[in-house]
Amino acid sequence: MNRAITIHRLARLLRITMFFLAAIGIAMVIRRTLAINDLIRSVNPSGGPPFDTGFGMHPVITYLHILPGMVFMILGPLQFLPGVRVRYSRSHPWSRRLFIIAAYIVGISALCMPFIMMPIGGLNEAAGSILFALIFLVSLSRAVWYDRRKNIALYRENLIRAFAIGLAIATIRPIMVLFFAFSHLPPQTFFGTAFWIGFTLHLVAAESWINYTRAPGSFKADTPGIKS
Fold first, then answer.
1. What is the three-class DSSP state of 88?
2. What is the per-residue pLDDT for 228?
3. Residue 4 half-sphere exposure, CB side, CA atoms within 13 Å?
4. pLDDT in tens, 22-36
5. For the purposes of burial, counting CB atoms within 10 Å of the CB of 224, is it exposed (0-12), middle (13-18) or buried (19 or more)?
6. Mean pLDDT estimate for the chain
7. How far is the C-alpha of 219 from the C-alpha of 215, rounded, in Å?
8. For residues 179 and 185, what is the distance between their CA atoms, to the nearest angstrom?
9. Distances from the Cα of 191 to the Cαs of 63, 186, 214, 223, in angstroms?
10. What does the alpha-carbon distance between residue 185 and residue 1 come to, in Å, rounded to a whole number?
């Protein structure tokens, strides 16, 4: 099959997946906001303390994480739609700046949360959260750096990497559901594993897509002056 056709089809599939996961992420924010305000019931299928208890005890860091997270999920997919960039050429730069600001808040708050409130998955979840938050922030910072240098190729690669990691939180939820359905392990045991699986899958997928779609001869290109 022609490589260009393959890339086009894969890109379409990835866009559908991206919007689906972003919708899950938005729903997660709405559900958690309602739960910590006692507007809906917070549950734990294993019979332990409700999952939202810890978040309700630390509302400031929770809102600092999930509300920018909603902005991240809404604006993130728009950064990868060429038609949107062309059609809304005047507003798109502002959308991108707001997305970057929200992404930094999400990343920094994710890095701080394990030190403020112990995750349900304990040290295993905390280690995964801290590691991938660092990769997320480094990738985001590199994207900003290359954007300022007008290196669109490396800006694109690092933004894909950062967004994939940020979007992984939505994939982790179905993984947790599978653990609940097919294992008898307590959440404290498998939550950390679910985090590692979800983040790793997204990072591998991002690196695979970056390498498959990278233009020949552009590996590690760092040439300023490329027009975006």
1. coil
2. 36
3. 0
4. 999 999 999 999 999
5. exposed
6. 91
7. 8
8. 8
9. 21, 9, 34, 42
10. 44
Reading the block at residue 102, the tokens are: 């929200």
**Residue 99 backbone phi and psi in degrees, to 5:** -60, -45
Domain regions of the chain by residue span: 3-213
Inter-residue long-range contacts of 27-30, CB under 8 Å, 24+ positions, other chains counted:
28/66, 28/169, 28/170, 28/173, 29/66, 29/67, 29/69, 29/70, 29/73, 30/70
Please report, for residues 23, 112, 225, the alpha-carbon distance to residue 70 in angstroms, rounded to integers and kept in the order given.
Answer: 9, 18, 33
Q: Among candidates 69, 102, 77, 67, which has minimal Cα distance to 19?
A: 77
**pLDDT-based confidence at residue 185 (cuts at 50, 70, 90):** confident
Q: Is the confidence at residue 84, as pLDDT, over 50?
A: yes
Q: Are 125 and 195 in contact (CB under 8 A)?
A: yes
30-59 confidence digits (pLDDT tens): 999 999 999 999 888 777 788 899 999 999
Helical residues (DSSP H) of the chain, grouped into ranges: 3-36, 53-57, 59-75, 82-87, 92-116, 122-148, 152-182, 187-213
What pTM does this model have? Answer: 0.90
